[in-house]
What we know:
Layout: H1 11-22, H2 32-51, H3 57-91, H4 101-113, H5 117-134, H6 146-156, H7 161-175, H8 183-198
Helix pairs in contact: 2-3, 4-5, 5-7, 5-8, 6-7, 7-8
Amino acid sequence: MALDVPVEIGRGAAREAALRELADPAYPKPSWADLLLDRIWQFIQDLINRASGVPGGWLTLLVLVLILAVIAFALIRAARKASGAGRQAGGGLFGETRLGAAEHRVLAERHAAAGEWAQAIRERLRAIARELEERTIVEPMPGRTATELAAEAGQALPALAGDLSQGARIFADVTYGDRPGTPESYAALTELDVAVRRENVTLR
């Protein structure tokens, strides 16, 4: 019984069929690092094909492959390092700092006096967060984000829930949204800091 399916297909047709199959949404999209490696490997294969018929071509090919390998390794390592730094920056309110509330306030006022509003805003919200932790209004939690802080503290201090959410948005805008800080935004966080210190509510 004869079938109407071709037994052999050309290289170009096979490539097109594979591309159509991989375009299916069910397949995960490759990262740019994967695409870069695919391009480099394709380039190396082309060099091998060309060098096989040229006298002395293998030595040139070996040098090029080593250069490309070093470049690819450096690019991928830099990308992974940047990605890791981005996750660390976006994952926590304090980063690597281990300061108390009073120390963060001093830094905030110093930045504000210098007109460095974005830095002042970050330090003022960190002062608020440390104040909440030091008074056990919220439990200390490594890696807590500004949004998580506002949500948890807002439950313990419902009268300040809206202001805490606004403070988290201001912090996120200058820290992750690359928006410039303003004296008005810093003043809002300073008022929130004062209001938090006036609260007598504790969890324990």
